[in-house]
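Q: Got a minute? One more chain.
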Amino acid sequence: MKANFLLFGMMILTLVACNELEDINGSYEVITVDGQDMEGQGITVNIQMSEEGNRISGNNGCNEYGGSFENPEANRVEPGMMMSTKMYCVEKAKIEKLYMNQLSQVKKAEYKNNYLKLMDEDGIVLIKAKRIDE
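A: Always. Here it is, folded:
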């Protein structure tokens, strides 16, 4: 009986662990925003994620940005209010606006094989990024 109880407990812990968001700490280069290829735009957008203090920061193609995110449950990442520098980059303004808009809609995250996918509530990928700090 005790062995069955112990086995059941271990199975529950294993299932819970499978639902945890893998370690997302690190730096990433954004590959796509709303399906648009960033390399094709000639713009470098990046993200730094830190679970210590739940911080998110980076460069949106023109300006530096930063803020915090909530992690209310497994595989959920919800960015809060963001601050940003205020330089104006004519050729990059459209991408900057699109990126910040998509970032504000993020509700879920998935990290797998060095790729970070930030998704909306329905699981649609808004931002995809590749880890660059290995």
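A: The first helix runs from residue 2 to 18.
Q: Perfect, thanks.
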